[in-house]
Design a protein that fits this description.
This protein is mainly α and 203 residues long. It has two domains: 52 residues, Arc Repressor Mutant, subunit A; 127 residues, Tetracycline Repressor, domain 2, CATH 1.10.357. Helix content is 68%, strand content 0%. The protein is built from ten helices and no strands. Helix 5 runs parallel beside helix 8 and helix 6 packs antiparallel against helix 10. The chain is globular, with a radius of gyration of 19 Å. It starts with 6 loop residues before the first helix and ends in a 10-residue tail after the last helix.
Length: 203
């Protein structure tokens, strides 16, 4: 049955429920461990049914691994000036998206990343997601250049962009994500745009 709520209110209600599920899940993961926490326990804490949980997250892993910033990042990259280098477009997208993140959102992101890099099965899925992201970024790079969506050169460029962003993390993204990590990623993308010159650089 279709909800009678106005579209805007319906979307806000869905976003609130989604946030509540994630918050209760992360709390339970912190308290009793990821492996020991079940979907039924998360659903009970969020005061929803297990079937409702699965309407928002396909698996327990997805509560942690779903990144709410990927879609806005891709859209922000798509709308950067068409004449600039793909690295500059991604750098501008980083700035546009992360400049509006609140302290509470940064805190949540730290908790999420800490969990990802402490649970082996989540680490494995995260690596798969990087491959997926290369495809998504590659499609945007191709679109901006007027190429076919599966263009090989655009995919290779996307791999270089994602690799540069990941390399900016001093501990391979195993430590806490901080606000200044956006600055580090920007500097990494600047190096890529400049042809990757080697030499001393500010850490």
């Amino acid at each position: 049955m279709t909800s009678s709520l106005p579209a805007g209110l319906r979307e806000r209600k869905k976003a609130k429920t989604r946030a509540a599920i994630r918050e209760h899940a992360l709390r339970l993961f912190d308290q009793q461990g990821y492996a020991a926490t079940t979907v039924d326990q998360i659903a009970e804490a969020a005061e929803i049914s297990p079937s409702t949980f699965f309407r928002y997250f396909p698996t327990k892993e997805d509560v942690v691994l779903t990144d709410d910033y990927d879609a806005p990042m891709l859209e922000a990259m798509r709308t950067q000036p068409p004449e600039i280098h793909p690295a500059a477009a991604l750098r501008g997208a980083f700035r546009q998206v992360f400049s509006s993140i609140t302290q509470a959102e940064w805190d949540l992101e730290r908790r999420r990343q800490r969990l990802v890099y402490s649970v082996p099965e989540l680490q494995a899925r995260a690596m798969q997601q990087y491959a997926t992201m290369i495809g998504l970024v590659g499609a945007v790079v191709a679109e901006r250049a007027g190429l076919s969506e599966d263009d090989f050169s655009a995919r290779v460029m996307a791999g270089a962009l994602i690799g540069a962003a990941l390399a900016a993390y001093p501990h391979g993204m195993t430590a806490r994500v901080e606000v200044n990590d956006v600055d580090r990623m920007s500097r990494a993308l600047e190096l890529l745009e400049a042809g990757l010159p080697l030499g001393p650089a500010e850490a």
